[in-house]
Amino acid sequence: MLNALTLAALYFVVASGLTLIFGLMRIVNMAHGSLFLLGGYVGFSISDSSGSWVLGLLGGAIAAGAVGLALYQLLLARFQNQMLRQTLVSIGCAIVMADLMLAFWGAETYQIEPPALLDRVVRLPVAGGYSTLRLYVLAFAVIVGGLLWLLLNRTRLGMMIRAGVDDLQTLRALGVRVRLVFPVTAFLAGALAGLAGVVFGTALSISPGEGMHFLLTSLVVVIAGGMGSIPGAALGAILVGLAEQFGVFYLPTYSVMLTFGLMAAVLAFRPEGLFGVKA
Q: Based on the structure, what is the number of domains in the chain?
């Protein structure tokens, strides 16, 4: 159960970025998983050379955010409201990024050295000894979710993002500089993916192929939870984490089917998602 919750925390951080750019902005960025992997690789390189985990976390987030911003400004923004073209372009970018990362970092598996404060074992009443790092990952996801909810619902930027999705023309008529609002959101979405990549590389490890795995899982989380809903992404991540971990333990052969079966079941009874709003 604890492993499922900590895995769900990682899924939520990645999916929260996808919620911003896909659920709110309606931008299909299939390179989001590659941003996750890029953040992990850059975080490993910086922390390994500097000896500072915090610098690696910041570096991974900034690098992934910068690349996500570049993808939006140079490519995805040109095809606003053209989801098929956005999908094809972003898939092409994901393939190129995956090959470039493979050429630079190789096919090896890397693990980021955690700070001494996190690299401990704590005694829990029922579970016994458990990694302190995984508990911090869970707390980190709660903090990220709370800050995102406040950003979208209690700040002027959040109101402009939501208003721009609903009625872009009216927002422009009111004098809001939309050209600045959406790029900031694209950078934030990429930075969240990069943060998750560094945290994942610290808690477990990073290797080629992880980006596609997290992209598919994030899509399940966002679609099942509801487009553009932070609480929905949190609940979707928990359900996916539980299905995946218990599936691996009890039904290892069919564990992948449980994850996508969960999405199919949610869409069958609630097509807009658990926390989604009907169009």
A: 1
